[in-house]
Design goal:
Elements lengths: L2 H10 L2 H6 L2 H8 L10 H5 L3 H7 L12 H7 L4 H25 L6 H35 L3 E6 L2 E6 L8 E5 L7 E13 L1 H4 L5 E2 L6 E2 L4 E13 L5 H9 L12 H38 L3 H25 L4 H18 L2 E3 L3 H7 L3 E4 L11 E6 L6 E2 L8 H13 L4 E11 L2 E11 L2 H7 L9 H7 L1 E6 L7 E8 L2 E8 L1 H4 L3 E5 L5 E3 L2 H16 L2 E12 L16 E10 L6 H10 L3 E5 L4 H11 L9 E4 H5 L3 H7 L3 E5 L3 H13 L4 E5 L5 H6 L2 E5 L5 H6 L2 E3 L4 H43 L6 H19 L23 H24 L13 H27 L16 H20 L14 H24 L6 H20 L4 H4 L2 E3 L5 E3 L12 H8 L12 H5 L1
Parallel strand pairs: 9-21, 9-24, 17-20, 21-23, 22-23, 24-25, 25-26
Antiparallel strand pairs: 1-2, 1-3, 3-7, 4-5, 4-6, 4-7, 8-26, 10-11, 10-20, 12-13, 14-15, 15-16, 16-19, 17-18, 19-20, 27-28
Helix pairs in contact: 6-8, 7-8, 7-12, 8-13, 8-28, 11-12, 11-27, 12-27, 12-28, 13-27, 13-28, 14-27, 15-17, 19-21, 27-28, 27-29, 27-30, 28-30, 28-31, 29-30, 29-32, 30-31, 30-32
């Protein structure tokens, strides 16, 4: 079949075409692959060169990109640049038609030409930043589409990257795995696939011999099986769609973050202020011009005044330019783009741009235990056969050979973990070494159990190969156990493993160390539970291994787990150690200092969970902090949750539904919630949370699809890094905002006063373009590239509704603006009396250019020395912290200062100012630099004015207000009704099926953020795909 025919067959799910080609065996024959063996080592030895040459690689096409030139042209749709270009064109025409014929001086064209140059520079900088951002997104999308998959090659399971999957490969699939290419079902059990990403179907679709089609880009919901790859890369259904619609699924390149929306609002207000200031200035100057026209004597004199009107218009436009903070969007773009790339180094792979800033406002983190707080290096360290003393150490012994064989079969067969060997090429100098690494892949608990077999001389692969598996009841977060039914000779036997608190009640007998099968009496049961508690108090995960003989024939009723999982016989109980990560205690302590509440949500036994929570500092019972089991939490209504949840720190034996309910309640109560998850069942909670954090190593692909940030090393410390980066982005944008607004307000007011006093702006258009466009672009780069510091964790969280312009920012902006205005007005009105500069006011043109020079130079150096002040957006950051480690900041600071020297000394004509090198030049430089350094002094004084930090007060008031609203609404409802509705951010009750009110800007996720809840009655734990949607 051609690629088009295969695509058509998959698109239509055409069984007739499938059957006509001989079903899956016919496709396997065409691809020259054995369905039992997979691709062979003979092909591997050649690097699969022939197969790659014929069918290509499993690489999806890149998303559509804009060329640099197209982006450059796109910049000129910006309103600010359009206004500048129009004013430049108008000025060029009028200067050429009126002024130049009269004065015959080419310098009249400097201003319009300089506007063109400034616009080109700004457009170039913006284009380069956007182009770099585009390249970063391309790199990220390549990472996003590359993940680990398991294939059958040469008869053995092997782990490879999804981009290494080839035509004819056999995928080994289990619950949570992503499907990396279009493939056909070979064999399996209870296989269901979540096709929502490709077809929009909300229900998981069963896959079997009569429905064999599986699409690339989807994920396995339940079951396990093998599938034959028949289409890869651009020839898959998803690849074909990308080629047609020319966009990546789900990722919007022009996605606007909530912070950008806030800044757009600020920029809009300032634009209106600038427009009003410009119009007012023009009206005043127009009145002056009309008076001069009335006073003018004769036609020639009136004609000579026409260029003055053009000049007045340019002054008004100049004041408008002063007000518009056109550098803000650039600052946000740089800050978010820079943080996304740097966060990769801190093991944070950001899938959605807005997650960077949202994480900074987090007030609560709901974290998994295994692999996040612990090392996920599971080792069996305790072994308990009932009736005997518990053995300690990693090499326990089982004296009875029959029990040993039975235990090894229970561990090897009733498991999905496996051992794989990966090859890594490492270059040391000129020597290239090939390193083979063997490791177990799968559930960490199952891997720990399999490691017991090797010292006993047992080969799990051979045991599995010899096993005749009849049916598997998979492990799930709800069941907390797994059972595999096999046929051993004439006996049908079930092997079960799981948590003792879930499994012990299903067991009626136990095997003693000598090999006797004895009944579990109440006394024995209590002894077992005491031993389990001892294990749990030592922070060990406990696992019970049991079996049951079912008879001589497999019955259909055994496909119902309840018919099998009772009257079992206990073989042993093991204690599995997962050491706490070394850095977790400090990371949790940092979160406490930062005012972020960490809650552990785990499926472990409550005693184990509490022991680990105490060890890492999450649970401190002396402060009234509590732990609860998921089953007990599920019984609470929302009014009871208002009492219990604030002190809750540990939820043990929790199900995905419990986690979703906790996350939704916290959001409804006014918290900004980050939640971690690794399983497919965690997807609803990850999608619902303000920031979903999936685990990169042990997380399923379905969980990663639902998340905003992937924690690449599964480490809680990396979550704290994401928190720091979020706060850092927010601070960096605030820092640039105070720098930009100080420039804008000072320039606008001085230009207005100067225009009224001198009938012309003392700061010319080209000077303000240098300050407002070029300097601001460089300032954005300097201030938006500051990395995070530990001091960011010393402040309290700002939550969801924090104001962008905080009291500290307003204090700094007002203080610096007043200082700069006083300095500039002192120079403007006291140039001779105070500073004895010797300016001659009678020579109007020379006076204006002399005044422009000193004002311009002083103004610029006040901004230059205000840059270090602007780095500090809070009261808790030391001034020198990171000052000299940010190379961008240091270089830009020096470059701006040096370029200003060049402009003043040698570009007087171009910038419309005089700087007499003979007459009091030293005094003028001293004035400019002294007042410039004065900005640093003013910054110190302003920081000494300590303001009361009301961040926590506002957040607590918000929480209290939400609690009052929830009590008023939910008191009259029963529990079922309460969970069929939730409270929106605006305080409106949203019932199940109603549309969420739009409480803020942003995409659907951000609206969910502000909506702060989900109606839980619609979520069925057995229907995870629907919940994810």
């Amino acid at each position: 079949m051609s690629y088009e025919e295969v695509l058509e067959m998959f698109d239509r799910r055409d069984l007739d075409a499938y059957n006509a080609k001989g079903k899956v065996q016919g496709f396997a024959d065409a691809l020259k692959v054995n369905l039992e063996v997979g691709l062979t080592d003979e092909e591997k030895a050649t690097g699969f060169s022939e197969r790659i040459a014929k069918y290509g690689r499993n690489v999806l096409p890149d998303p559509p990109t804009e060329s640099w030139c197209h982006m450059f042209l796109g910049c000129f749709t910006d309103l600010m640049l359009i206004i500048l270009l129009c004013s430049a064109v108008l000025s060029l025409i009028l200067e050429g038609a009126i002024t130049y014929p009269k004065e015959k001086d080419w310098t009249v064209f400097i201003e319009p030409v300089s506007i063109f140059i400034a616009v080109l520079i700004v457009a170039t900088v913006q284009t380069q930043v956007d182009y770099s951002q585009q390249q970063s997104f391309l790199e990220i999308n390549k990472l996003k589409n590359n993940y680990d998959v398991t294939v059958i090659r040469n008869g053995h399971e092997e782990q490879i990257q999804s981009t290494e999957v080839l035509m004819g490969d056999i995928l080994s699939l289990k619950s949570g795995n992503a499907i990396s290419a279009d493939c056909l079902y070979i064999r399996g059990q209870d296989l269901k696939v979540n096709n929502s990403a490709q077809t929009g179907e909300s229900d998981a679709i069963p896959v079997h011999e009569e429905a064999p089609f599986m699409y690339g880009g989807t994920a396995v919901e339940t079951g396990f099986g093998h599938a034959l790859v028949v289409a890869i890369g651009p020839h898959t259904r998803s690849g074909d769609m990308m080629m047609k619609i020319q966009s990546l699924e789900g990722e919007k390149k022009d996605e606007q973050s909530p912070l950008e929306a806030k800044l757009d609002h600020v920029a809009l207000i300032l634009t209106y202020l600038g427009a009003a200031g410009g119009i007012l200035t023009f009206v005043v100057l127009f009145i002056y011009w009309c008076i001069d026209m009335v006073k003018a004597d004769g036609k020639e004199e009136r004609k000579a005044l026409v260029p003055e009107l053009v000049n007045h218009l340019m002054v008004a436009i100049t004041i408008f330019i002063c007000a518009v903070p056109e550098g803000l969007p650039l600052a946000v773009t740089i800050a978010l783009g820079f943080s996304m790339k740097r966060m990769m180094n801190d093991q944070n792979f950001v899938r959605h741009l807005s997650a960077c800033e949202t994480m900074g406002g987090a007030t609560a983190i709901c974290s998994d235990k295994t692999g996040t707080l612990t090392q996920n290096k599971m080792t069996v360290v305790r072994f308990y056969q009932i009736g005997s003393e518990a053995q300690s150490g990693t090499n326990p012994t089982i004296d009875n050979k029959d029990i040993l064989d039975l235990f090894c079969k229970a561990v090897a067969i009733n498991s999905t973990a496996y051992q794989t060997t990966t090859t890594e090429t490492k270059k040391i100098g000129k020597i290239v070494e090939t390193i083979e690494k063997t490791q177990f892949v799968g559930s960490s608990s199952e891997c720990a159990l399999l490691q017991l077999l090797e010292p006993w001389g047992k080969d799990y692969k051979q045991i599995r190969k010899d096993a005749n598996v009849q049916h598997v009841h998979e492990f799930s977060s709800a069941r907390k156990k797994m059972t595999t039914i096999v046929k051993e000779g004439d006996i049908i036997r079930a092997y079960m493993k799981g948590g003792p608190d879930f499994c012990l009640g299903l067991c009626s007998h136990y095997i003693s160390a000598p090999g006797e099968r004895l009944e579990i009496t109440q006394e024995v049961k209590e002894a077992i539970l005491r031993q389990v508690t001892v294990f749990a108090n030592d922070s060990l995960r406990t696992m019970l291994i049991a079996y049951r003989d079912l008879g001589t024939e497999f019955k259909e009723e055994y496909k119902d787990a309840t018919t099998v999982e009772h009257d079992l016989t206990v073989l042993a109980i093991v204690g599995i150690q997962d050491p706490l990560r070394e850095e977790v205690k400090d990371a949790v302590a940092a979160c406490r200092t930062a005012g972020v509440v960490v809650r552990m949500v785990t499926g472990d036994f409550i005693a184990t969970a509490k022991a680990i929570a105490r060890e890492c500092g999450i649970l401190d019972e002396s402060k009234g902090e509590t732990a609860i089991e998921g089953q007990e939490f599920a019984k609470l209504d929302k009014i009871q949750m208002l009492e219990k949840v604030p002190s809750l720190r540990v939820m043990a034996r929790s199900s995905p539904m419990d986690k979703l309910k906790l996350v939704s309640f916290l959001m409804e109560a006014g918290e900004v919630v980050a939640v971690t998850g690794d399983g497919s069942n965690d997807s609803p909670a990850l999608k619902q949370a303000d920031v979903g954090l999936s685990m990169g190593r042990c997380g399923t692909e379905l969980a990663k699809m639902a998340s905003d940030i992937v924690i690449l090393d599964d480490n809680f410390n990396s979550i704290v890094s994401a928190l720091k980066w979020g706060r850092c982005v927010y601070d960096n944008v605030r820092g640039f905002l105070q720098f930009q607004l100080t420039v804008n307000f000072s320039a606008m007011i001085v230009a207005f006063i100067g225009a009224v006093y001198l009938k012309d702006s003392p700061l010319t258009t080209i000077q303000l373009l240098w300050v407002n466009l070029i300097m601001d672009s460089l300032g954005a780069l300097a201030l938006a590239t500051r990395g995070p510091s530990n001091s960011l964790l010393k402040r309290q969280p700002y939550g969801r509704s924090d104001q962008l312009l905080s009291p500290v920012l307003i204090r700094n902006i007002v203080g610096q603006t007043l200082y700069q205005l006083i300095v500039l007005l002192l120079i403007l009105f006291g140039y001779n009396k105070i500073f004895n500069l010797g300016f001659n006011k009678n020579d109007k043109k020379t006076f204006q250019r002399d005044m422009s020079g000193i004002l311009f130079n002083t103004f610029v150096y006040m901004q230059v020395f205000n840059l270090p002040n602007s780095r500090i957006a809070g009261q808790d950051t030391p001034f020198f912290e990171g000052l000299f480690t940010n190379i961008y900041f240091v270089v830009i600071f020096i470059v701006i200062a040096l370029v200003q020297v060049i402009i003043i000394e040698w570009c007087g004509s171009a910038f419309y100012h005089n700087w007499d090198h003979k007459h009091k030049e030293g005094i003028r430089w001293l004035i400019s630099l002294a007042f410039g350094v004065g900005s640093l002094v003013i910054g110190v004084i302003l920081r000494l004015i300590r303001l009361t930090d009301h961040t926590t007060d506002r957040l607590n008031a918000h929480r209290a207000h939400r609690a009052v609203q929830m009590r008023e609404i939910y008191t009259t409802m029963d529990k079922e009704q309460q969970f069929k509705c939730h409270l929106s951010a605006s305080g409106k009750l949203v019932r199940e099926g109603e549309t969420e009110p739009e409480d803020g800007d942003g995409d659907a996720k951000e609206q969910s953020d502000s909506g702060s809840g989900v109606s839980l009655s619609a979520y069925n734990p057995d229907d995870k795909a629907e919940a994810l949607l």
